Amino acid sequence: MTFLRTGQEYRESLRDGREVWYGGKRVEDVTTHPAMRAGIDFQARMYDAQHDPATRDVLTYVRPDGERAATAWLVPRTREDLLLKLAESEYRCWQSFGAFHSRQPNHVAWVIIGQLAYESVFRTHAPEWADNLARYVEHAQRNNLATAASIIEPQGTKARTAKAGDDRSAVMRVVSRDSGGVVIRGAKAVGTAAPMSNDVQIGSIYYPHVRPDEAFWCCIPLNTPGIRVYCREAVAPAAGFRDHPLASIGEELDCLVVYDDVYVPNDRIWALDAPATCDPALFGTTGGGEFWIHLSRSVVKAELMVGLAQLVADTLETGSIPAVQDHINEITQWALILRGGLGAALDRAALTPDGVLLPHIPTINAFRAYGLDHYPRMNQLLQQMCGQGLVTRLTEADLAVPQIRADYEQYHQTGQSSVDDKNLLMNLVFDVTSSAYAGRSEIFDNVNGLPAGLLRSLLYYISDRSPHVEKVRGLIGLGVDGPGTGATSATEAWHTGGRTQG
Ligand SMILES: Cc1cc2nc3c(=O)[nH]c(=O)nc-3n(C[C@H](O)[C@H](O)[C@H](O)COP(=O)(O)OP(=O)(O)OC[C@H]3O[C@@H](n4cnc5c(N)ncnc54)[C@H](O)[C@@H]3O)c2cc1C
């Protein structure tokens, strides 16, 4: 048996009457809209790959009851589970040329699985609702769902819980209730990939400012009446593979999501009137898997850049120049360190009190901050290595003209590569380093995934430095026998051979 679905079934699931707006017009069908079609087709190929014998055992797993389900929704309890989820993430990242589809279904699945990892906290603060968390994960496994998340408040003062004062008219909240569910009203700033998702998770992380009727977690279908999705302008021009390899696989649009008196049935709610479940510190704790996936995206992006750098050097025959080798070495060092961080966070993974294995968050934060700190330089090095190559690219239409092709072959052919291959390589490097698509991806990594400075500042609170402090104390005998005794520590005695300084 299987809980899987085909790409075509996934496409059909998005033709559900949802209210999506693009460029001031209501979108009739997201699967055929020029700004959305290619991204949805990419995700459909990913669903098809779940059936392909070559990728099936990475993208899917067999549940204890014998049903095959998507790895995205696997709740990890062992190291092998985490390794499978990592392999799945890396596959998804490579298929999108180094993680440029950053909000694939495995991402928000991790947000929800992370909450399940701390189910007992939800049970403490929302005892009537917490069972629905596991039920939702089961539902998502059975239906192989693509789920978006909308958690962050819009920037308008009235919509910000901390600033709204007593005017809660724009704050996301429950406005009425009946025995079957609640009605919510408000908006969430960004729901990435909402047009190409089945469901959307709604929640808040504004404790202590959030009030009880503003404090809930739930997940509902995107075609629920009253949901309006406003898409940003697309950054991926409609293009063929050889002209813009990255843009040709479409994109995930970021969207403002408005909830205009939306009915949420009881069984889709796993916290209500529960401000403590909106504590950002809790979100930081439940986020272990999600943050690890962010790091795995950084690793694949870095390794893509290593591959591109070497190919550029080979194509332009610059690989013997020491300065060029230095550039490749710098990008390689960056990628190797990031890869090491992924493994280190895995080695320090720990079971939560509710039996889910989550990678080590302080390690993830440290490496993600390192990755972000160095990204602009690596991008610049790769651009630099291409020289004129990034601005002497041609389209397939150009190369179809015999005279243009002949001139290009005459003046641009290198010893190591055909003009078609050189052009394709430079088109990809342009897409991933210099296009609007690359810019949006950098914003995603740096803002949605949190900026390096913020990741580092969190370390102060979440990294346990006490073992190191104790080690140093022991090493020099700080506080031995209490303050001011002048007692000699064992280490001091070892180093001085028992002599005391006079
Ligand atoms: C491409 C993209 C995709 C996104 N996708 C989603 C999504 O799918 N779902 C979702 O819920 N959200 C999403 N977001 C929202 C994202 O999580 C927030 O933008 C991010 O958390 C920053 O919050 P903000 O935009 O409200 O920043 P603001 O509060 O408006 O602050 C603006 C900037 O000021 C600085 N700043 C503010 N407060 C602090 C502080 N305490 N410490 C340090 N610096 C601070 C930061 O530089 C911050 O970026 C997305 C954002 C982007 C850019």
In words, what does this structure look like?
By secondary structure, the protein is an alpha+beta fold. The protein has 3 domains: 7-278, Butyryl-CoA Dehydrogenase, subunit A, domain 2; 287-462, Up-down Bundle (Butyryl-CoA Dehydrogenase, subunit A, domain 3), CATH 1.20.140; 466-496, no CATH class. Helices cover 47% and strands 13% of the residues. The protein is built from 18 helices and 14 strands. The chain has helices spanning 7-13, 37-49, 56-59, 79-95, 105-116, 119-125, 131-143, 280-286, 288-316, 322-347, 361-386, 396-399, 402-412, 419-434, 436-448, 452-462, 466-476, 490-496; strands at residues 19-22, 25-26, 60-62, 68-70, 147-150, 173-178, 181-188, 199-202, 216-221, 227-231, 255-265, 269-272, 350-351, 357-358. The strands form 4 sheets. Strands 2-1-10-11-7-6 form a 6-stranded mixed β-sheet, with no helix packed on it. Helix 9 (288-316) runs antiparallel to helix 10 and helix 11 (361-386) packs antiparallel against helix 16. The radius of gyration is 26 Å and the shape is globular. The mean pLDDT is 94. Flavin-adenine dinucleotide (FAD) binds next to strand 5 and helix 15.
